[in-house]
Write a structure and sequence with these properties.
alpha/beta; elongated; single chain; 10 helices; 374 residues; seven-stranded mixed β-sheet; 2-enoyl-CoA Hydratase, Chain A, domain 1
């Protein structure tokens, strides 16, 4: 039997539970000996559940509603502060989207998007950097060393002293003698490319100084109809050879092309034999010709003067060949070896003399010209 003291303790606990039922819904130790009373604990829990059924759930809902209202009021205060309406009456407050005093004041029509061309991603390792950082690294990926494609202006700036050079034969322009039309006329395609790129054709020829050596460089631009070989390219290279013969200057051609320009049909294909014949005159005159193959060098370029240099060199990872790897694979019905048609693969099989990093290109060319002169 329970003593009088125990009953009194239980009565006090009941009164305490009525004041704060959640604190004592599962009772711990009670009594003088801190002994647990499981029956009374169960009884208290049942009473707590009955209380929740009667009004506890309603009280909890009211409490949650108050918390939500307080949170909404806090958000309203934040928006009012952001809009500059803090301390104003409801009637004088403007809408939260009309930030008059503070915050964003720019209208939608005046918003400016991030300009394109500020960032670039390496196609080899997906490293993202600014174009400025890439330019400072001579368009070589700072992470993996991948050589990004660049045009004639960048190569001239890299090779010629203080970016000083003279562009030759810019007056020669392509014409649509055959009135060729595919998706659009060849003449219209030329006019659009001239307007978009400000480049007169797929190759630019310039003369300048590499270290102490006067040199003629012909550099292809892939953005002009894929750097394709047309009658203008053939004529400019031929005149560059004549210029070298006249002034006894070495010639360097930087190849970057997808092959012959089919819009000119046979006129394009004739340039392969024409340029190859002119380059033989340099050989007879003992004037060096250096061929630099970059990514990509395909078709009629690699099948003719691209591989006729006294030295055939290439950039790392450049794709060089005649037909594309997909066409070759479908033709021979076999898997191609790893790195097929890359400059490292061609060097291993004897098609190239050496591979040069773009950062070392000017020094290596100057060294070669010194050796040729000796």
């Amino acid at each position: 039997m329970c003593s009088y003291l125990d009953l009194r303790n239980r009565a006090n606990l009941v009164q305490e539970w009525l004041q704060n039922p959640f604190q004592l819904q599962f009772l711990g130790s009670i009594g003088q000996d801190n002994h647990k009373w499981p029956l009374f604990s169960i009884f208290a829990a049942k009473i707590c559940m009955k209380d929740l059924r009667r009004g506890g759930a309603k009280k909890e809902t009211i409490r949650m509603t108050k918390d939500k209202n307080q949170s909404m009021k806090h958000d309203d205060d934040f928006e009012a502060n952001l809009a500059g309406d803090e301390g104003q009456s409801e009637e004088s407050k403007s809408g939260w989207f009309r930030r008059i005093k503070k915050g964003i004041l720019t209208s939608t029509a005046e918003k400016k998007e991030t300009p394109e061309g500020l960032w670039t991603k390496c196609p080899n390792c997906n490293y993202i950097c600014t174009v400025t950082e890439l330019r400072e690294n001579i368009f070589v990926c700072p992470k993996c060393g991948h050589h990004h494609r660049i045009g004639s202006s960048e190569y001239f700036e890299l090779l010629f002293n203080d970016n000083q050079y003279e562009v030759l034969f810019e007056n020669i322009r392509a014409k649509d003698f055959l009135h060729f039309t595919d998706l659009k006329s060849y003449q219209k395609r030329l006019e659009e490319t001239w307007a978009k790129t400000e480049i007169t054709d797929s190759i630019r020829v310039a003369v300048g100084d590499i270290k102490e050596y006067r040199t003629v460089i012909g550099c292809m631009d892939f953005e002009f109809i894929g750097g394709s070989l047309g009658s203008v390219m053939g004529e400019r290279i031929s005149r560059a050879v004549d210029y070298c013969l006249e002034h006894r200057l070495p010639l360097m051609i930087i190849c970057k092309s997808g092959g012959a320009r089919m819009m000119e049909s046979a006129f394009s294909l004739m340039q392969m034999a024409k340029v190859s014949g002119k380059l033989s005159q340099l050989t007879d005159a003992k004037i060096p010709f250096i061929s630099l193959l970059t990514d990509p060098s395909f078709g009629g370029i690699s099948a003719s003067f691209g591989m006729l240099g006294d030295l055939n060199i290439a950039e790392p990872g450049a794709l060089i060949g005649f037909a594309g790897p997909r066409v070759i694979k479908e033709t021979i019905k076999k898997d191609l070896p790893e790195g097929f048609q890359r400059s490292e693969f061609l060097l291993e099989h004897g098609f190239l003399d050496f591979i040069v990093n773009r950062k070392e290109l000017k020094e290596r060319i100057a060294t070669l010209l010194t050796l040729f002169k000796g």
